[in-house]
């Protein structure tokens, strides 16, 4: 019988509602053949807020599981032996804290900490560029990454202390060349932080623990070549920049989730084949094969997947690994002149971009440059979709089709609104049951270590055991290092890509004349959702159409949005929310606007089920946009119409 390679780890990115519900989901998925866990945390946990913090309102349990303290972590992994598990935690700003909670639970289970296997994502640079769940400024954030890596090297040597994450870069518009360069530049920034911390003899081993988390899009030949380029470039950097001689420590070790951005609300059944093709990009080439794969579900453009939807994605992996002969062969592409030429072109372009970043002082210093480039690249992607140059089946070509039986009835999972109240109740009971003196002592030790620049992992683990909460841990970090607002990538000056906008620009000029001043559009992102790609593109297109824009970036409170609408003298307010928290957040914004006499039309965009869209319109929202509304010029026309005093008077 032909000898087969061992398959990659099968993961499902999952977590929602409560720790208990997520634990049941994990145990069910493991029973179905999943071989590793991938934990999704809710936004308050990711950004360091307890469930009863005002900024957490409407966000608890929506995009992941809420973890407020050690009790929640115990429940999350109840009856799951962590010493035998490989766990990936998608956590960044609060990575030291969640790892501390994980270690504390493992110790309670009697596990050897040195035997723990898994990963914390712990990549803050991409948070400033694309995902938005940062808390602290860049420099102390990179130092915290170093703390985790240094602690893991001494105490948990099988644990990956960082996933350099290019996944969200692609979702923010990155080209393959940019994805290569920006991810590798981030890895260099972290290794440069680590090198002075350790004995030179131990440094190569630390290099070998850095892993990557990538995205695979629908252009699966180019994506496969990108992965081969990653392998070559990482080997080159480890050897030439860091002097790592052992080829095993230079391996490009990566996990992957295939592209959720490309999943469509229209004809969502097409998403199943998209997911399979994207999986092939990271599995076909043996020399660049992923170590772990997690696939989105076919209905993620509609809302939160159900367990059955996640099972379907798991079965896709299992069919490829066990029913096909893929794992019986060596690399299928070695010696291919087409593949070799594409890989070399990608490597050359990535080296050029790396050199530009290096000339700016490295990834941290180049964050504004990289952010602006991503916004530009995403604008190019959207222009291709609008023009039809980029074909998306069922969206801008062959949009007419039979109704999908998959979407009949309740095609997504809905988080019960009572989840937040229940989590708050449990959190307050947890606080009441703690030893206040032990909590104060642990937080004091954490504050002293952070202020002195010492490694925060040991005091964080003691905080976990003392019963400290996620918000309390993060508040210490904020107090010591300050908070940060990243660059938006949207300049006030129009871009040079205004072709086809003349009719809209003329309409904006005409309405501005009737208004007596420049039409002003306020773009706001309430809540903790950091997915700013859509908001950036709407703000940028409004600017290019001649509007005056006001866009402060992510994480704005409803109070701040209403104040900005008043202070900026806006004519139309746009709200972008992709976390599923649109109903409570929009309701709050509208109530505050009415209370303060700010009478303006409001438009809302996000992943919004039709029933919720109807409810938003009943609240008074003028327009609701979902991912199917990709023609931004049509949205611009709506904004102009809503601001036109002539039309308002006629009504």
Structural description of this entry:
The chain has 651 residues and is an alpha/beta fold. It contains 25 helices and 15 strands. The chain has helices at residues 19-31, 43-47, 70-76, 95-108, 125-131, 138-155, 167-171, 176-194, 203-207, 220-240, 271-281, 307-323, 337-359, 367-387, 418-432, 436-452, 457-466, 470-481, 502-515, 533-544, 558-567, 582-595, 610-619, 632-643, 645-650, and strands at 9-11, 13-14, 37-40, 86-90, 117-120, 159-160, 163-165, 211-216, 254-258, 292-294, 520-524, 548-551, 572-576, 602-605, 623-625. The longest helix is centred in the middle third of the chain and has 23 residues, at 337-359. The N and C termini lie far apart (77 Å).
Keywords:
651 residues, alpha/beta, 5-stranded parallel beta sheet, 25 helices, 15 strands
Secondary structure blueprint with pairings:
Elements: E1 9-11, E2 13-14, H1 19-31, E3 37-40, H2 43-47, H3 70-76, E4 86-90, H4 95-108, E5 117-120, H5 125-131, H6 138-155, E6 159-160, E7 163-165, H7 167-171, H8 176-194, H9 203-207, E8 211-216, H10 220-240, E9 254-258, H11 271-281, E10 292-294, H12 307-323, H13 337-359, H14 367-387, H15 418-432, H16 436-452, H17 457-466, H18 470-481, H19 502-515, E11 520-524, H20 533-544, E12 548-551, H21 558-567, E13 572-576, H22 582-595, E14 602-605, H23 610-619, E15 623-625, H24 632-643, H25 645-650
Parallel strand pairs: 1-10, 2-3, 3-4, 4-5, 5-6, 7-8, 8-9, 9-10, 11-12, 11-13, 13-14, 14-15
């Amino acid at each position: 019988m032909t000898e087969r390679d061992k398959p990659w780890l099968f993961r499902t990115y999952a977590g929602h509602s409560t720790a208990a519900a997520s634990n049941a989901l994990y145990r069910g998925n493991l029973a179905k053949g999943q071989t590793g866990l991938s934990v999704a945390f809710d936004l308050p946990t990711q950004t360091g807020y307890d469930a009863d913090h005002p900024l957490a309102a409407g966000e608890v349990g929506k995009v992941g599981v809420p973890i407020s303290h050690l009790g929640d972590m115990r429940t999350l992994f109840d009856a799951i032996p962590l010493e035998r598990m490989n766990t990936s935690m998608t956590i960044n700003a609060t990575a030291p804290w969640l790892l501390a909670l994980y270690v504390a639970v493992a110790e309670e289970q009697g596990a050897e900490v040195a035997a723990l296997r898994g990963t914390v994502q712990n990549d803050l640079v991409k948070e400033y560029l694309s995902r938005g769940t940062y808390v602290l400024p860049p420099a102390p954030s990179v130092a915290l990454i170093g703390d985790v890596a240094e602690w893991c090297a001494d105490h948990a040597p099988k644990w990956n202390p960082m996933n350099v994450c290019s996944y969200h870069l692609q979702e923010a518009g990155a080209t393959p060349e940019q994805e290569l360069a920006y991810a590798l530049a981030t890895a260099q920034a972290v290794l440069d932080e680590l090198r002075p911390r350790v004995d030179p003899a131990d440094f190569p081993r630390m290099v070998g623990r850095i892993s990557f988390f990538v995205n695979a899009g629908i252009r699966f030949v180019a994506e496969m070549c990108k992965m081969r380029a990653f392998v070559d470039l990482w080997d080159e950097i480890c050897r030439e920049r860091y002097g790592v001689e052992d080829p095993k420590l230079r391996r490009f070790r990566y996990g992957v989730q295939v592209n959720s951005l490309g999943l469509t609300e229209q004809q969502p059944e097409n998403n199943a084949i998209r997911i399979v093709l994207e999986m092939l990009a990271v599995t076909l080439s043996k020399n660049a094969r992923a170590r772990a794969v997690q696939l989105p579900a076919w209905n993620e453009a509609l809302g939160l997947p159900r367990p059955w939807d996640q099972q379907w994605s798991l079965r896709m992996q299992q069919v490829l690994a066990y029913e096909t002969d893929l794992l019986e062969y060596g690399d299928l592409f070695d010696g291919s002149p087409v593949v070799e030429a594409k890989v070399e072109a990608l490597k050359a372009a990535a080296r050029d971009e790396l050199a530009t970043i290096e000339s700016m002082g490295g990834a941290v210093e180049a964050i504004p440059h990289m952010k602006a480039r991503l916004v530009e690249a995403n604008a190019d992607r959207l222009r291709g979709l609008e023009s039809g140059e980029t074909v998306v089946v069922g969206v801008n070509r062959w949009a007419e089709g039979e109704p999908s039986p998959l979407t009949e009835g309740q095609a997504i999972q809905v988080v019960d609104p009572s989840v937040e109240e229940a989590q708050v109740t449990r959190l307050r009971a947890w606080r009441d049951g703690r030893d206040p003196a032990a909590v104060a002592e642990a937080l004091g030790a954490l504050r002293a270590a952070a202020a002195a620049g010492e490694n925060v992992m040991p005091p964080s683990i003691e905080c976990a055991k003392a019963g400290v909460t996620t918000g309390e841990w993060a508040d210490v970090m904020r107090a010591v290092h300050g908070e940060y607002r990243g660059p938006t990538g949207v300049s006030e000056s129009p871009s040079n890509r205004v072709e086809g906008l003349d009719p809209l620009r003329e309409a904006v000029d005409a309405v501005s004349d009737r208004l007596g001043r420049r039409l002003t559009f306020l773009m706001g992102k309430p809540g903790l959702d950091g997915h700013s790609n859509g908001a950036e593109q709407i703000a940028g297109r409004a600017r290019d159409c001649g509007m005056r824009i006001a866009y402060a970036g992510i994480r704005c409170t409803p109070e701040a949005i209403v104040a900005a609408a008043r202070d900026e003298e806006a004519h139309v307010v746009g709200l972008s929310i992709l976390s599923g928290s649109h109903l409570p957040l929009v309701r709050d914004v509208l109530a505050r606007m009415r209370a303060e006499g700010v009478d303006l039309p409001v438009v809302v965009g996000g992943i919004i089920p039709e029933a919720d869209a109807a409810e938003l319109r009943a609240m008074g929202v003028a327009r609701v946009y979902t991912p199917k509304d990709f023609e931004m010029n049509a949205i611009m026309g709506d904004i102009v119409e809503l601001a036109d005093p002539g039309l308002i008077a006629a009504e």
